[in-house]
Write a structure and sequence with these properties.
mainly beta, Methylamine Dehydrogenase, Chain H, Immunoglobulin-like, five-stranded mixed β-sheet, about 10% helix, about 45% strand, globular, disordered N terminus, binds [4Cu:2S] cluster, binds dinuclear copper ion
């Protein structure tokens, strides 16, 4: 067995180092048993689940590591014809917002739920950057369970980062906006435009989210954030890049100042102020969508108000930490002592010390204030600077062995450095223009420092060319030794920003394999073929249909007229793992359904023309799958 593996590894190593001048340097980087390190034999499981943001496709994808195999795409903010998400009547409400259904978004960051600063494998949170929303995905079903829209926000980028016990999911505004929907001149930015930091309470048993309070900050464009941990448990840190408060030509005007700020928020104190009635309740509309597992139905409610906390009324709650040149990433090391800001235009990486921050706050020796919020002195709170790390530092992850890894967007490399003495220890190229990095648990108290993944913005020549549009790319590095080693390249679904990964055993055995049909609470369930029926009510026709290998019942439906609203409620009667049935009907803009065993899902169809419309199962479910079909007769009115 071992010999075969070694042979395979050797063969693969030869294959990648095939003589080609252009490939030489890259090939050199993958020698040393790389193939055996990523080889997961057929039938074997990967060591880690890796959740990756889908960027502008609005979804989340799941890969196995170290193989890089794509396991699943979880639709979150975007409709997904493959399994009917956003097309079935049961899931449409998940995409509700105050602007009606927004069936798309720009998904950047993911965070796995934590207990005591360690991953607990319960939920995965995802942000929507465009129409501000935060989603919760249930890791027993890999389904989106909840989506909460956020008022007083735009460009919900600094999100969904969580506190150590998942007390809160936190979201910061990238695009400062006037609160409410005021019609104000854009030139009144300084006065009217604000950044908010939203604290969403997470129910510890159900995961249910509710907006607890929003801290109103000056318009300054919050970019990223992370919670403190251990000693810094009570604090949250946000980077900002527009303390110039520019509102035109940001490229130039938001890059003028030598330093922007990292905003330090004491969320424990904020919580107390909120409880003590220091906030102001104001009207605010936002959608709150939940998927009820029992009823197998998404419902959407409009929330009506929000609680705003103004730092002016809440002393010692917010401080500003000067940070060189438009910081992007804002990352806290596993001990909770070091805060790494990544000024993307800076030629160094500043590392702040939490204990020094505490001392400086005590002394109250401030540099001044930013619209009433005290500014700490850079030198007072600095642990030190990593000198000449590379160009364009963006994001930092940690291995739990005292090392940090920072992505360098401009010089396309990962740089490993020591938290203690801030010395650069190693650097490896990325192909190309790396954004986020991800180490399993790399932003928790207990990183698993075996692998690092770089998520790259530009692919260029890495794969067979596919016309002008290329897939984005991830690269896997072995970081278990002193030197980082590139061991795998693989394309991703959509643009990967942040990712998360956890040991497979944390969630593998909790997976729901199918739904118990006796507990099916869908209002349109059909319990057995003898209960199928077609019910007309005005121009609404309800078809109570069943699916089991290999027939749909009823399979001949007549008495339907042009313009009727036909609802196919399809119950999958199977009680076995991995036997879904699909359902589609000709000429239907509502895509299709994919119905899991024991589930009932509804597809709406409004025939516009008379004729015979075939319907069929779309998922190859048995040798007689092709026969799993029927006809709907649509007659003229
Ligand atoms: S961002 Cu994408 S590379 Cu939206 Cu977290 Cu930095
Ligand atoms: Cu059921 Cu194919």
């Amino acid at each position: 067995m071992k010999n075969i593996r070694l042979l395979l590894a050797a063969a693969a190593a030869v294959a990648v180092s095939m003589p080609s001048c252009k490939m030489k340097s890259t090939a050199a980087a993958v020698e040393g048993g790389a193939a055996s390190k990523v080889y997961v034999a057929p039938g074997k499981y990967d060591e880690f689940y890796n959740f990756v943001s889908g960027g502008f496709n609005g979804q989340v994808s799941v890969y196995g590591l170290p193989s890089g195999r794509l396991l699943k795409i979880i639709p979150v903010f975007s409709v997904f014809p493959e399994n009917g998400y956003g097309y079935s009547e049961e899931t449409k409400a998940m995409l509700n917002t105050t602007q009606g259904q927004v069936p798309w978004d720009d998904q950047h960051h993911l965070e796995l739920s934590q207990t005591n600063g360690e991953q607990d494998g319960r939920w995965l949170f995802a942000n929507a950057n465009n129409t501000p929303r935060v989603a919760r995905i249930d890791l027993k079903t890999f389904k989106t369970a909840e989506i909460l829209q956020l008022p007083n926000s735009a460009g919900n980028h600094s999100s969904p980062f969580i506190t150590e016990n998942t007390e809160y999911v936190v979201a910061g505004t990238r695009f400062s906006v006037p609160l409410g929907a005021e019609d104000v001149p854009i030139s009144s930015f300084k006065k009217n435009f604000k950044s908010t930091a939203s604290f969403i309470k997470v129910d510890s048993s159900t995961g249910h989210m509710s907006l607890a309070f929003q801290i109103v900050l000056p318009g300054m464009n919050l970019d990223l954030s992370h919670a403190g941990k251990g000693p810094s448990h009570d604090w949250f840190f946000f980077s900002s890049y527009n303390t110039e408060q520019a509102y035109t030509l940001l490229e130039v005007n938001a890059s003028q100042k030598d330093k922007d700020y990292i905003v330090a928020v004491n969320w424990k104190k904020a919580e107390e102020y909120a409880k003590a009635g220091k906030g102001k309740k104001v009207p605010a509309e936002y959608a709150h969508n939940t998927f009820d597992e029992q009823k197998q139905l998404a419902t959407s409610v409009m929330e009506k108000e929000t609680l705003l906390l103004d730092p002016k009324d809440c002393p010692d709650m917010v401080y500003m930490i000067p940070c060189p040149k438009s910081p992007h990433g804002c990352d806290i090391d596993p001990t909770g002592e070091y805060i790494v800001g990544s000024g993307k235009l800076a030629a160094l990486i500043p590392v702040f010390s939490f204990s020094k921050i505490m001392d400086a706050m005590q002394k109250k020796d401030f540099e001044g204030d930013f619209q009433g919020i005290p500014i700490l002195k850079y030198q007072d709170v600095l642990h030190g600077e990593v000198q000449k790390p590379g160009l364009g530092p963006l994001h930092t992850e940690f291995d739990g062995r005292g090392n940090a890894y920072t992505s360098m967007f401009l010089s396309s490399e990962v740089v490993k450095w020591s938290l203690k003495d801030l010395k650069v220890l190693d650097r490896v190229p990325t192909y190309y223009s790396v954004g986020h990095l991800m180490i399993p648990g790399g932003d928790t108290k207990k990183p698993n420092g075996k692998y690092l993944v770089a998520y790259n913005k530009i692919t260029k020549d890495r794969y067979l060319p596919t016309g002008p549009e290329l897939a984005q790319s991830a690269q896997l590095y072995d970081i278990s030794g002193d030197k980082m080693q590139l061991i795998l390249d693989y394309p991703t679904v959509g643009e990967p920003h942040y990712g998360q990964a956890c040991p497979a055993e944390l969630i593998r055995d909790k997976q729901v394999k199918f739904y118990d049909i006796t507990k099916n609470g869908n209002q349109y369930v059909t319990m057995g073929e003898k209960n199928v029926k077609v019910v007309r009510n005005g121009n609404r026709v309800d078809v109570y249909m069943t699916a089991i290998r290999s027939h749909l019942v009823p399979d001949n439906i007549e008495g339907v007229y042009v313009g009727d609203n036909v609802y196919f409620h399809v119950t999958n009667l199977e009680q076995d793992w991995d036997i879904p049935h699909g359902f589609a009907i000709k000429n239907n803009p509502n895509a299709e359904l994919l119905i899991m065993p024991g589930e009932t899902v509804t597809l709406k169809y409004t025939p516009l023309k008379q004729g015979i419309q075939p319907f069929y199962c779309t998922d190859f479910c048995s040798a007689l799958h092709q026969e799993m079909s029927g006809y709907l007769r649509v007659s003229p009115k």
